[in-house]
Amino acid sequence: MSTYRDRTIFDPANICIYCGATEPDTKLTTEHIIPLSLGGTMVLPKASCLKCADETKRIEGYAGRHVFQDVRIIHGFPTRRPKERPSHLPLRDSFSPSPKLAPIRLVPAKEHPGMLILVNPEPAGILLRRQPDEGAKWDPWVRQITGRERVDPLLKKGISAKIYREIQPDLLLRLFAKIALGVTFASFGGVSLFAFNNMLSGIVLRRDTNPFYLVGGTTAEMDEFPTPPNKIIAHRAVVYNKTVNNISYLAIQLQLFAYLGTPIYTVIAGPLTEIGMKKLSMA
Q1: Nearest by Cα to 90 from 166, 152, 143
Q2: pLDDT tens per residue, the chain (283 residues)?
């Protein structure tokens, strides 16, 4: 592994971590494990074929332009297209679904209070011993990014600081699956292909799969994160062994924008092999 500037570059995967394609049959491109748009600095070279890259870009685009747009703009996270970054963000007069009853007001991004809406689901279905096609319960998790210092001036101008966002839980959970797979290959390096039996590829690539089976919330008893050294942490990830029905699974816990107190998600990548368990025990 080598580092330069603010990026960490891991050893090349030399395989598409999503579909298993290799060179020279396909061209392999670099993967940002956490999307660059979200401030990701971990880079995995030669890790995605062009076809799979198109699908993961769709997932990342939804996350960057919809779910995390306010955070990115207000906190100045990077963008590949700075000229296309919105200078204004929308507010609504009410939460009514009718455009006539809830007209949109655009205000400068520097005045916008910002909102982050995520899902807070049950643990992954596999951990609850459910079938792969069973759904899951989830609640919205909502956090205003700024405080009264932005809300009060808007109210004085007669602008209601109501923020409306629609969320697609399946796409959000597929993003977590995509990140978890990258974290796994970065963690296991050259033995990644032999460390676990990959169950995540279908969740990332196929839109008709049920992401709630392998991706879910984290209870206090499941939390494997060490105590953070400080509160100013953007993203966290940890890999560990999770046993279910006497089977050892590779699990990854993720927390994006941790400094906002966001939910922790647990992703099950697949059953561990002896090589994977030995690698984890040496970590």
Answers
A1: 166
A2: 333 346 889 999 999 999 999 999 999 999 999 998 898 889 999 999 999 999 999 999 999 989 999 999 998 887 878 888 889 998 887 776 666 767 788 899 999 999 999 999 999 999 999 999 998 999 999 999 998 999 999 989 888 878 878 889 999 999 999 999 999 999 999 888 899 999 999 999 988 899 999 999 999 999 999 877 766 778 999 999 999 989 999 999 999 999 999 999 999 999 999 999 998 887 6
Rg (CA), the chain: 20
CA-wise closest residue to 206 among 270, 133, 137, 268? 133
3-state secondary structure of 137: coil
Reported as half-sphere exposure (CB side, CA atoms, 13 A), residue 92 has a value of 15
Contact criterion met (CB below 8 Å) for 262 and 116: yes
Note whether 116 and 207 are within 8 A (CB).
Answer: no
Q: Is the dihedral of CA 205, 210, 211, 213 positive or negative?
A: negative
* Element spanning 2, H or E: strand 2-4
Give Cα 204 distance to the centre of its chain: 12
φ, ψ for residue 30, nearest 5 deg:
-75, 140
Residue bearing tokens 């008893």: 221
β-strand pairing of 7-9 with 42-49? parallel
Residue with tokens 């990140």: 179
Q: Kindly list the domain boundaries of the chain, sorted by start residue.
A: 2-282
Token digits of residue 149: 């210092």
Question: What's the rounded Cα separation, in Å, for the pair 122 and 139?
Answer: 9
